[in-house]
Write a structure and sequence with these properties.
By secondary structure, the protein is α/β, with parallel strands linked by helices. Helix content is about 70%, strand content about 5%. The chain contains 25 helices and eight strands. The strands form two sheets. Strands 2, 3, 4, 5, 6 and 7 form a six-stranded mixed sheet that branches. A two-stranded antiparallel ribbon has the order 1-8. Helix 5 runs parallel beside helix 13 and helix 9 runs antiparallel to helix 10. The termini are far apart.
């Protein structure tokens, strides 16, 4: 049973069509503000039994023949794509940051796992038996559906936060940390349930063994495993081995090893790849270039092939159930929103951001589709339920951007730290005012795609009119810019101090560069007032000056401006 020339020819044509059209459709969807995932799945639906198989069965049979060898070739590539997708997802998950925020992030994540499961379990018991899969029974089906409803789409939320310029703010950081912890807990819960349900007979002792082994494996990987990965990647760099190829090989080998380990434990290999990604992603020696190479390779080639293959598996028209789609969409969206809402209420985070954080947990996206596909292949779901989950995941992801943007507009106040960013916190090396302004302008220009030369000219012209230095070693250069969509504040700190022509003659050591849209004068004035009031206290200034690194500096900013909010320009 060897591959022949015809097998290879058909396979190459399949990959050419699926990959080319998926990339094209994905890019078109992104240009109108929607996830590329939608376009990739639509390509599979068009080329699959739903459209091509129904209206041109001869062409469909020639492109996707029923030959098992041919189907296995494409299925294998799709599975490789799925495994690498989970590996890359783990790689992008910032576990260290989530751990530092474990208080608030853990409260939100745990609430957003438990509450959606409780909300989903009982209504699913009421569904007719014809929705049940061949395996698992009614309780197993409801347990799985409850687990699916906890899973949120971290990549989709990250993209929307970037579009709204919230990704690297204090608020965006909390949302991403909570989603990271939610992903980790959700995958542990899901893989445990899947492991139990796919075994014909599971005794209580075996349940306990699988649970303890899974938790032990997870803890081991996230403690010692992270350190070992860091040392291994550091060693390859010191040895002068070619990059990024060596690191890429090591990460894939780590995924294969962890995937094999989780399979032996009795849970799915996908969880092993996910954990391996987290371990490798925590390595300080792993360069940003290597991360980008891995991410682009996975998302440019393997992810589109996996999601297009979903549409090839099922006739959507035969399995389309409007009632079930709406039922699961409402159940999942409401459960995740309410779970995060209650979780935020358990923290000390400002309640003004409660709605925005809760909306960030709503989309189901790629992860919901992945776990549902596994359940379908294990016989836990019917085609109808699978299609309904996919449609609900797509709908919840598509509505995330408009919903979050509307929530932003509804807020009456905004915490001032939302105008800061971890990437715009800087230790100034320049010894004079002009050089310091230039350094801070470069950061602002990079963060918001601004022209650094024209921005510097604007600020220097203002400095010539009057110095923006205030007393107590603080300066607040500021200007309004045409075309800027949201305010941005860049914080700079000078260890030696800079002569900024201060009224009290003191050298300036703390600099806050404030840039606002042309029509937001009140926001600028309010920000200036907050800075002046908050920095009057010697303890606040010393806290900012004594911070040893960016993490401590950010913590100091959070402490100094803990209760400071700015009234929106359109608020009543």
């Amino acid at each position: 049973h060897y591959l022949n020339e015809h097998n290879l020819l058909v396979f190459l044509i399949q990959v050419f069509l699926l990959l080319g059209l998926a990339r094209l459709a994905g890019e078109l969807l992104r240009r109108i503000g929607q996830p590329g995932l939608i376009g990739e799945i639509l390509v599979g639906i068009v080329l699959g039994p739903t459209i091509l198989g129904r209206f041109a069965p001869g062409m469909y049979g020639a492109l996707f023949p029923a030959d098992p060898t041919q189907q296995t070739m494409l299925e294998t590539v799709a599975w490789i794509g799925l495994l690498l997708f989970l590996l890359e997802t783990g790689l992008e998950l910032d576990f260290s940051s989530a751990w530092r925020q474990r208080g608030d992030a853990l409260k939100i994540a745990v609430a957003d796992v438990i509450i959606p499961m409780v909300i989903a379990f009982v209504p699913c018991l009421l569904l007719p038996d014809h929705y049940l899969g061949a395996a698992g029974g009614k309780i197993g089906f409801c347990l799985f559906m409850a687990a699916v409803m906890t899973i949120s789409a971290l990549p989709a939320t990250a993209r929307v936060l970037q579009d709204l310029h919230l990704y690297k703010t204090n608020l965006g950081f909390l949302i991403m940390c909570a989603l990271s912890v939610n992903d980790l807990i959700g995958w542990v819960v899901f893989t445990l349930i899947l492991g139990f349900l796919t075994k014909a007979q599971v005794e209580l002792a075996q349940v306990a063994l699988i649970t303890l082994t899974t938790l032990g494996f997870t803890v081991l990987c996230l403690t010692f495993g992270r350190r070992i990965s860091d040392r291994a990647i550091s060693f390859t760099k010191r040895a002068g081995l070619p990059e990024p190829g060596t690191s890429l090989t090591f990460i894939v080998l780590l995924g294969l090893l962890c995937g094999a380990a989780t399979t032996l434990i009795g849970i799915h290999a996908l969880f092993g790849f996910f954990i391996a990604g987290i371990m490798a992603g925590e390595a300080k020696a792993l360069s940003e270039r290597t991360r980008q190479v891995i991410s682009q390779m996975v998302h440019a080639i393997f992810v589109p092939l996996f999601f297009t293959s979903i549409g090839l598996k099922i006739d959507i028209f035969k399995s389309f159930d409007p009632f079930l789609i709406l039922f699961l969409l409402i159940l999942g969206t409401a459960g995740r929103y309410v779970g995060a809402w209650i979780g935020v209420g358990l923290t000390n985070h400002p309640k003004a951001n409660r709605d925005l954080i809760s909306i960030g947990h709503v989309p189901g996206g790629e992860m919901q589709i992945v776990v549902s596909l596994l359940a379908l292949e294990y016989g836990l779901l019917t085609d109808t339920v699978f299609v309904s989950i996919v449609c609900g995941a797509i709908a919840s992801t598509a509505m995330l951007g408009p919903w979050m943007a509307a929530a932003m507009r509804r807020r009456k106040t905004i915490h001032i730290l939302e105008y800061f960013s971890k990437d715009t916190v800087h230790d100034i090396s320049a010894q004079n005012r002009d050089g310091a302004i230039r350094e801070l302008v470069e950061l602002a220009a990079s963060a918001r795609n601004l022209n650094p030369d024209s921005l510097t000219d604007l600020l220097m012209a203002r400095e010539k009119e009057f110095s923006t230095a205030v007393e107590l070693g603080v300066a607040v250069p500021h200007t309004r810019i045409e075309g800027l969509t949201a305010p941005v504040i860049v914080f700079g700190r000078s260890e030696a101090g800079i002569d900024w022509n201060s009224p009290d003659g003191r050298l300036t050591r703390l600099v806050f560069l404030i840039l606002t849209p042309i029509d937001e004068t009140q926001v600028q004035l309010r920000a200036l007032g907050i800075l002046a009031r908050s920095l009057k206290a010697e303890a606040s200034r010393q806290l900012l000056l004594s911070a040893k690194d960016k993490h401590e500096t950010w913590s100091a900013l959070e402490t100094v401006f803990a209760e400071e909010h700015i009234l929106r320009k359109d608020a009543k």
